[in-house]
Amino acid sequence: MSNTITVVISAAGLGSRLGLNKPKALVKVEGKPILSYQFELIKDLAEVVVVVGYKADEVIDLIAQLRPETIIAFNHEYQHSGTALSVSIASQVSADWIISLDGDLIVESKSWTSILNHPTSCLGLGPVVSKSPVYAHLNDEGKVFDLTQDPLRPSDLEWSGIVKMRSKEAKNLGKNHVYQGLLKYLPMDWVEVDTVEVDEPDDLIAASEWIKSKWRKDL
Amino acid sequence: MKKAFLFDLDGTLIASELLPAIAADLGIYDEINELTQATMAGDIPFDQSFRYRVELLESVPESRVAEIILSQPVHNELMDWVLTNKERCWVVTGNLDCWIRPWLEKYGLRGYSSISRRENGKLVVSSILHKASVLSDFKGYYTCFVGDGANDAEIMRNSNISIACSLIHPAANMLLEIADFVVMKETTLCRILSRL
Questions:
Q1: Is A70 in Cβ contact with B181 (below 8 Å)?
Q2: Which residues on A lie below 8 Å from B188 (Cβ)?
Q3: Cβ contact B92:B7 at 8 Å
Q4: For the whole model, what pTM was predicted?
Q5: Please, which residues have CB within 8 angstroms of residue A157's CB and are 6 or more apart in sequence?
Q6: Taking CB atoms and an 8 Å cutoff, what residues of chain A touch B183?
Q7: Looking at residue B61, what DSSP letter applies?
Q8: B12-64 residue pLDDT tens
Q9: What DSSP string describes A93-130?
């Protein structure tokens, strides 16, 4: 499957909650931009699309240094759309399967491998840590049958922001939040993942600690 | 829907900027290069700059210029793709018809270009191609334009899909506001083209 899979990194957004005047791909954790951790993780894979928007030229400069064979796609509506639009744009030029990764997410390598090796579509889920989690609900067969941000319907598991799916389906995710576009494709398998997301200023400290304890230097 | 792939020439199919390459061969590199750089930076409008650069070359026989163009390196992998998909590909270049005709004939490609004439033995620009106008020939097609210069902005805006090329130099800044994709490697470009 690795010859027919494209990693899609959505790096178009403003990162407004973080308020650092740069897209999250460029935010440094332990001295390195988030995008460089993501590129390290996927270095053995042939195909990646990075979707850019806010400060596209700066993200492109970083890509030119780290991985110039990247396909760079533009989401020119980044101010008014959600990640779903970025993923659908990237899907137009992707292989049969994609793994979609939010631009502010660092994934631990064993988790990444388990998503990569999973034979069908799947969501990466973890324990609830976010301020506005996307709760994942499981049915009797242990598959995810619902994703919701409704605080009145909490669960022990949240969707991390990583999903593996067919690119044909990813073209129809809509223009808002990816999880909303995914609802029509549920139920879906899930895989436990260890990730850190940099969404709010407090997350930077947690991310630093996470990298120091979990990021393998021998990747 | 039928697809039409429209390609800029300099910096896209051909792996060099033609006017500076022609000028270097003829020993007038500095004047032309300065003009070319200023045009790429958007300091001088394309039309004005192009007419002036042609003036610098007005006494040079067309055949000599055409020869220099034929000797320029091409992006091989991209050309392989184009030649395999010839019936869906066209060249759209601001360069002069008399200069590029032999190149197009060599590869069996169809093209749109600026038009020239001879006046009192001197080469003169009759009309400069405004690339977007070409799209009126492609009604009913799904159009994809591939280019790298600021003079590609309008045709990019009006094509169904557009790819900015940063193959031999970074694509013009303006294109980053308009293009759907930008690529830095030929292999990446061919991959996108095959998937569209």
A1: no
A2: 69-71
A3: yes
A4: 0.93
A5: A125, A126, A127, A128, A135, A136, A138, A190
A6: 71-72
A7: -
A8: 999 998 888 888 888 888 888 888 888 877 788 888 888 888 888 888 888 99
A9: TS-SEEEEEETTEEE-HHHHHHHHH-SS-EEEEEES-S
